[in-house]
Amino acid sequence: MRTNLLIGIFVVLIIISGAVGYIVGQQTGAPVQQYTPPEKIKAAWIYVGPIGDAGWTFMHDIGRRYVETIFRDWLETTYVESVTPDKVVSTVDDLVSKGYNVIFTTSFDFMDATIEAAKKYPNIMFFHCSGYRRAPNVGTYFADLYEVYYLNGLMAGALTQTGQLGYVAAYLIPEVVRHINAFAIGAKEVGDALGKNITVHVIEIGSWYDPTKARQAADTLKKQYNVDVLTFTEDSSAIIEYGEQNGVHVFSHYGPMAMYGPTYTVSGQIVRWEIIYADILVKIKAGVLTPYNLEKVDYWYLLSSGAVDLGGDIGDDGRPVLINPRYEPILKGIMVTDKLTGERISVYDLVMRRYQQMKGAFAVIPFQFSSETHKYENISSITINWGGMIGEKPYPIASEYDPFTGPLTGYCLMDNPLSVWCRGKPKGASVSIPAGIRLGHEDLWNMDFFMSWVIQQG
Asked: How many Å is the Cα radius of gyration of the chain?
């Protein structure tokens, strides 16, 4: 009975897919073309690193394994790991020859090659992670961690004794700059409340996966700049291991890395790409997404979507461990004043409060699907008239709190800037974001300035 029911559902989906495709085509401006979803979707992932990196590629592959398991009756998957940008097109050639009809390219560096491959294969659907170039058969997607880095920063500001924090960055692209700044904002918020002078020292290592360089950078930050807290955007567990071996508080990146440093891993960020992968594949199966209407598909999922979360470990129940239990009593014993309410609370409670303030923005999720609707993501609320005895009530849209809300001060990082805050200014010029101004999607996506208390070293 269950099998017959599923068959009936998919028959209905196929019948209505033409109409749904027409509607989506009208919304996205794409030419309307007839499309019948494949009976079996064959999806392939092209990875920039090894699946054992414990970070970026590892978590993408967790997402692949999730959808492969859930949708096993109509989905077949494969992957190719450690692909360099110059090999992307030839890798696509091989996958297409084997019948793969949906291809995920999972590195910013793969962007141009993805567009090139898509031109060769206009009937294949491509989804590029972290890029901004799209085409009728190329959509983009990203699960961003800046809110979680901010939460990590709150804890770092409480734990540091020296006021000196270290950050190891793979590359200073806008994504990483955004994360560094969010971490720095959180650290300064608590640092100011505790009378600490916070400085975040950054070393760029020029590689997404290089455990040796990552460890060297961590050692330099500790020995030369007296940092006693470390975080990073690099895909190995090297810095976690360094923190464990050298008694430095550390925050994991992208995946549950606490096993490499159970004593000194405070928390971290966990990405759940499967939230996006499941959404994409279900919409392909239903005929909503086709090779002809992806040009404005641009997932930008934040904490409220479930695609990212706070934590450095996965518990026995499968849920993220938000904060290492060893650190809970420490953070509960440090009291600060919430700058928004004036209330005296523990740092632990402040972290949990901000977590809920950002995670609860469920109404913004639909706007995070398309490049056409990102402009609505900063609407704090609208007014709805419920009628009757209820009357008018505010309806919250965006998160209650966002770390990138002025006043903020910083400085430009390059001579040819992307953001409106640095456009027309030379490298090193001051940035001043007025009080109450909340940065939107374009500001965040093009971030090319550091907070004034962030210093690039080396």
From this structure: 23
Q: Kindly report, residue by residue over 245-260, the tens digit of the pLDDT.
A: 999 999 999 999 999 9
| Angle formed at CA 379 by CA 376 and CA 384, multiple of 5 degrees | 105
Element (H, E) at 90: helix 88-97
Helix (H) or strand (E) holding 174: helix 174-193
3-state SS class at 299: strand
Half-sphere exposure (Cβ direction) of 237: Cα atoms closer than 13 Å: 20
Q: Is the pLDDT of residue 196 over 80?
A: yes
How many whole angstroms separate alpha carbon 353 and alpha carbon 132?
33
Contacts of 211 (CB under 8 A, 6+ apart): 236, 237, 238
Angle at 26 between CA 23 and CA 31, to 5 degrees: 110
User: Which of 311, 350, 310, 348 is closest to 331 using CA atoms?
Assistant: 348
Whether the CB-CB separation of 207 and 215 falls below 8 Å is answered with: no
Which residue, among 209, 327, 198, has the nearest Cα to 267 in the 3D structure?
327
For residue 407, say if its preceding peptide bond is cis, omega within 30 degrees of 0.
yes
Q: What share of the chain is helix, strand, coil (3-state, %, to 5)?
A: 40, 20, 40
Report the first-to-last Cα separation within the chain, whole angstroms: 66
Q: Tell me phi and psi for residue 391, to 5 degrees.
A: 75, -155
| Confidence class for position 17, pLDDT limits 50, 70, 90 | very low
Q: How many CB atoms lie within 10 A of CB 102?
A: 23
User: In degrees, to the nearest 5, what angle opens at C-alpha 393 toward C-alphas 406 and 303?
Assistant: 45
